[in-house]
Structure to design on (306 residues):
């Protein structure tokens, strides 16, 4: 083969490689989330932030429950999603390790394990915790001076009237009510429980707020949007009975290599999502019925991120 042909072939190969690279670079990031309202809300924030950074995206928000979203991320069907640091304890079967009860240490462990095993990168988490909580009416909290789970445990041990609305999972799972009982030294008997089918926190919180069937305590999540609207107080957990569930963006390493600007684009979005802010934003969607995309856009605008 002549030198001219070799040169021509080399030029064509280089051009083809460059074109292939351009196609790959133009491939959108598939952004996913779980079915819940908070996942969809934060997912909308990520879509907006990435668009502003010039990153093409594909919306796959509210794809399914944790197991389905996790499999989609591992398989490459999803490139980026919102996940919670405490869930890594279950992904890697380390539920009993106290590291998950420390926000910084738990995040570091999740990031290290997922990168080593799956080449997944955990980016900066939000300074919020969406773990299980026990919530009581504000009036009861004021009247009986119940601010923490230590106070609540003493209230229970004193024989005061307590009835908790919760899901079967919360009542039976070692990570739920039994974890609170063990950490704070109290016990709720079957007669003190109202186990609701499905156990949506909206239903458990409404039962406590309205005193349905004598309920005056409820299973909830720390960032539930209806807590303030229903005048409920989430009891503080000073002994960290629950793992910390801080929301964080998780991205495939190959995707981050293609679009390194994702890290900088998402960092200020998550940095502003403290617990108070996240509850207020969730309330706009869950209670006031606002569209998640509009709430997300307003949040980014107020932080000059649009």
């Amino acid at each position: 083969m002549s030198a001219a042909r070799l040169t021509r072939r080399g030029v064509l190969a280089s051009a083809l490689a460059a074109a292939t690279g351009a196609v790959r670079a133009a491939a959108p990031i598939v952004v996913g989330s779980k079915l819940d309202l908070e996942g969809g809300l934060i997912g909308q924030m990520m879509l907006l932030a990435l668009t502003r950074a010039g990153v093409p995206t594909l919306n796959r928000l509210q794809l399914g429950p944790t197991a389905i979203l996790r499999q989609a991320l591992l398989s490459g069907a999803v490139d980026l999603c919102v996940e919670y640091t405490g869930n890594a304890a279950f992904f890697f079967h380390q539920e009993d390790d106290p590291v998950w009860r420390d926000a910084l240490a738990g995040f570091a462990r999740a990031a290290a394990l997922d990168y080593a095993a799956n080449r997944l990168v955990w980016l900066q988490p939000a300074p919020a915790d969406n773990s299980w909580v026990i919530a009581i009416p504000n009036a009861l909290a004021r009247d009986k001076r119940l601010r923490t789970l230590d106070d609540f445990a003493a209230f229970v041990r004193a024989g005061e009237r307590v009835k908790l609305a919760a899901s079967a999972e919360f009542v039976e799972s070692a990570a739920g009510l039994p974890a609170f009982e063990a950490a704070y030294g109290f016990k709720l008997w079957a007669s003190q429980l109202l186990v609701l089918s499905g156990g949506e926190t909206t239903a458990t919180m409404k039962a406590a707020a309205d005193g349905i069937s004598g309920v005056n305590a409820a299973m909830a999540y720390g960032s539930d949007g209806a807590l303030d609207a229903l005048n409920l107080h989430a009891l503080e957990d000073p002994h960290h009975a629950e793992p910390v569930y801080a929301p964080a963006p998780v991205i495939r390493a190959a995707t981050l290599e293609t679009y390194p600007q994702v890290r900088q684009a998402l960092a200020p979005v998550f940095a502003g999502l403290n617990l108070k802010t996240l509850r207020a934003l969730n309330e706009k969607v869950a209670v006031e019925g606002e569209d998640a995309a509009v709430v997300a856009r307003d949040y980014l605008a107020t932080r000059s991120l649009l």
Summary: Residues 46 and 266 are 7 Å apart (CA to CA). The beta strands are 29-34, 57-64, 80-84, 120-122, 132-137, 164-166, 193-195, 217-221, 232-234, 247-252. The first strand starts at residue 29 and ends at 34. The chain has two domains: 10-129+245-302, 132-234.
